[in-house]
Every structure is written in C-alpha cells, then in structure tokens.
Design a protein that fits this description.
ten-stranded antiparallel beta sheet; single chain; Thiol Ester Dehydrase, Chain A; 35% strand; 10 strands
C-alpha cells in the first residue's frame, strides 16, 4: 500500500475502500517488494472539486513472484476545477474472493496445533454462521503512535502528518491512516478469534468515517460464512465481517440506525477470509 501513495494518494482527501485483495505468497524479512498500479475507474464527485480514482495494485518480490494483488479507491482533489468531468467508469468488482482461490503457504501444517500454547481453545469447527463476537477491549490512538506506524507502512500521504495544514481542514487535526485502524481492529479481534492465524484475502471493505488522535477504537465481528479448504483437513476458512468503531464499545454491535444509515461512530467495515486450524 505504502508504495502506491506517491503516485495515487499523496494529496488524497481520503482512502475509501478495498476489494478483491489476494495475499498470494508469504513475505519474509529480507524480501524486496515493488508495486505497480493501473487506474481502472474514475468518477467525479457532485461537488466538482474532488473525484474517486479506482486502482488495481500488484506487489511482487525480488523474484518477480506476485505476493499481493488488490483494488482500492481513493478520493482525490481535482487540479483544474473548470475542466470537464471525465467519463465515469466504475469497475465491475467481485463481491468476494472465491474460497478455492485461497492459497496456503508452502509447508504450513496445523495438524499438531497446540491450543494451550496458543491461548485460545476455539477452532474453525466451533464457529457458526451468523455468530457475532464483541471483542470487548478498546485502544486509544495517540498522535505519535499513529504517525510512527504510518511511517513504518511507508505511507507518506500529507493528511496523516501535517498538523499545520490540517488545522484548516474539516477535522482540524491529522487523519489517522486507515491501515493503522485496520491493524488495531485486527489486533482487538484476537479476543474472540484467537486462532484466526492469518488473513488469506480481503473481499471488500470501507473506511466509513475518519479517526483522529484521542479516539478510542473498539471492534466486533460477524461470521458470514465458513468453508473447507480443498485438500486440507487441518485448516478451514472463516469469512468474517470486522466492524470497528470510535468511542463506542461494541456490546450492542453498532452498525446502522433505524433509518438504515450507518452510525457515525462506525469507522471501518471489512469483509475478509481468515484461515484457522481445524479439529483433526
């Protein structure tokens, strides 16, 4: 993601969402990752001052092997407000990554998985479709923490760092990088999904509201689906919906109001496949 920022979202207003994200090969310390992006969609917003750009980005390692392929869309400012709007092109994106497209790393074997050492007794077999899990804990975002994390992600977008400029913006503060919010929500989810060992694919997701320093992030999950992985008896896939909020504990599973509109304190809605050990 960070490697796409200089070309796509250095001057963005906000990163909005993701789709069709496939983690195809594991990455290890010492690997070198490079990224290319293709613009696959454009849509000018009704205010005529901004628009949405859809891009497909592909990351490869030093051997030329694809490790990640995904689509995201970002809101950017229009350079010339008097220029005519481009033709609207909205890409046709899949609703989810097929489970048979999920690949497990070579050599991964959960047959001897020790739930005692893992700290959680719950495995793939124990979860039911439709089950909701309140992850209970909260994490307060500190300015130094989110800026340091954003640097480590090599995201250089100015809205995350320049308080002098952002004081004149709509939030009067630096916007927390959405990837940091995803990381916090994913970390919180281990309270209830302690053996969801890794994310195999992201089906879709949206940053539905911004966070700033001082906000406290909470999260809850819903099991949307579960599937066996072809040829594997030691592991299964859970399709999970991860919802994160700011300053709103999730015991009531906050989502949408009576009017059908998303609540303002919901900041993330992420749909992903997680791989989890099975009972042998």
């Amino acid at each position: 993601f960070g490697k796409t920022v200089p070309d796509i979202s250095l001057n963005a207003v906000a990163n909005l969402g993701y789709a069709d994200c496939r983690f195809l090969k594991p990455v290890f310390a010492g690997d070198t990752i490079s990224t290319t992006s293709e613009v696959i969609g454009l849509k000018q917003n009704s205010n005529g001052k901004t628009g949405v750009v859809y891009v497909r980005s592909t990351g490869v390692n030093q051997h030329g092997e694809t490790v990640l392929d995904y689509v995201r869309w970002v809101m950017v400012r229009k350079r010339n407000l008097d220029a005519p709007a481009p033709d609207t092109v909205i890409p046709d994106l899949p609703s989810h990554v097929p489970v048979d497209a999920i690949g497990l790393p070579d050599g991964l074997d959960f047959s001897g998985y020790d739930t005692g050492l893992a700290g959680s007794p719950h495995l793939w077999d124990d979860y039911a479709i439709g089950e909701k899990i309140d992850h209970v804990d909260g994490i307060t975002i500190e300015a130094a923490d989110h800026m340091m994390a954003t640097r480590l992600y090599q995201n250089t977008a100015r809205v995350h760092f320049n308080l002098h400029a952002e004081r004149d913006g709509w939030l009067k503060e630096r916007i927390v990088y959405g990837g940091h919010v995803i990381s916090l929500a994913r970390a919180l989810s281990f309270n209830g999904l302690g053996n969801a060992c890794f994310i195999a694919a992201i089906n879709g997701g949206q940053h539905t509201a911004p966070c700033i320093a001082g906000d406290t992030v909470y999260a809850w999950s819903e099991v949307l689906d579960k599937a066996e992985i072809k040829g594997r008896r030691d592991a299964g896939a859970l399709r999970l919906r991860l919802v994160a909020t700011k300053n709103h504990p999730c015991g009531d599973f906050p989502d949408k109001g009576a009017d059908g509109k998303r609540l303002g304190d919901v900041v993330l809605d992420l749909d992903y496949w997680a791989v989890m050990p099975r009972r042998n």
